[in-house]
Design a protein that fits this description.
about 240 residues; 6 helices; DUF4230 domain-containing protein; alpha/beta
């Protein structure tokens, strides 16, 4: 490849010398035909130089080398019967500030402003339902109705106004702590929002319509609304259970 470059550069230098010579001849000649001949030669040399340059670029350019690998391991699988009844979107502004003292008297502070955009899914685990069926009177009585659960949270973190000092820098553990604390704030906000009430209303309507389609009546439906204030957090996947998502 280096030899090809040397040949192309040598060819370019020779063309420049050749052009200089013919420019000199053109200034000394009065013959129109000879001037036209020289002009055509110059254009041909220029065109040849452009072609040589493009060929050199193509020869020297190397394709990008991309290497990818992926390994997926399924840890566990089990059947569940969980139904999402409400979905909420939240924007949480989380301020983090930590001050340490260097040599026990020189304060050093680091700060971060994080905006968390989250999607929260609330639903019910049908495995926890307890009911009693009265076939004769075509009634279904709720004996125990579980509280709604936060089944999933999808979060996106955007960092703004990060301030740190030389002796007090952000570490990976600090960032993980910020994300975990910020996500917990979103979960608490979801619990205090109207999402549990919306989920309870959706579940009450769903059960009523399903039973009415079978000519059954739902008793004790008030238990559904009573349980909305006891919302809990049970993520669907192991990443959220470990607090790493």
């Amino acid at each position: 490849m280096n030899k090809i470059k040397i040949v192309l550069w040598s060819f370019g230098i020779l063309m420049i010398i050749f052009l200089g010579f013919f420019f000199y001849q053109m200034t000394q000649s009065q013959n129109i035909n000879s001037m036209m001949t020289i002009l055509m030669l110059i254009l041909g040399l220029i065109l040849g130089g452009v072609i040589a340059f493009l060929a050199s670029k193509k020869m020297t350019s190397e394709p990008n080398v991309i290497t990818e690998s992926s390994h997926t391991i399924a840890e566990s699988m089990r059947k569940v019967f969980k139904v999402v009844a409400a979905e909420g979107h939240f924007n949480e502004i989380y301020n983090y500030e930590e001050t340490t003292k260097l040599l026990k008297f020189i304060p050093s502070t680091k700060k971060a402003l994080v905006i968390i955009q989250a999607k929260v899914l609330i639903g019910y685990d049908f495995e926890k339902f307890q009911w009693e069926v009265d076939e004769q009177n075509r009634k279904v009585k709720l004996l125990n109705f579980p509280a709604p659960e936060i089944l999933s949270t999808e979060t996106d973190y955007k960092y703004y106004n990060i301030e740190e000092q030389f002796f007090n820098l952000f570490s990976k553990d600090d960032l993980a702590k910020i994300q975990q604390n910020g996500k917990q704030q979103v979960i608490e906000a979801a619990k205090k929002s109207h999402l549990p009430e919306v989920a309870a209303e959706q579940m009450q309507m769903l059960l009523t319509e399903l039973l009415s389609g079978k000519n059954f009546m739902l008793e004790n439906s008030s238990k559904i609304m009573e349980s909305k204030n006891q919302i809990s957090y049970h993520p669907l996947n192991s990443d959220e259970r470990n607090g790493t998502r």
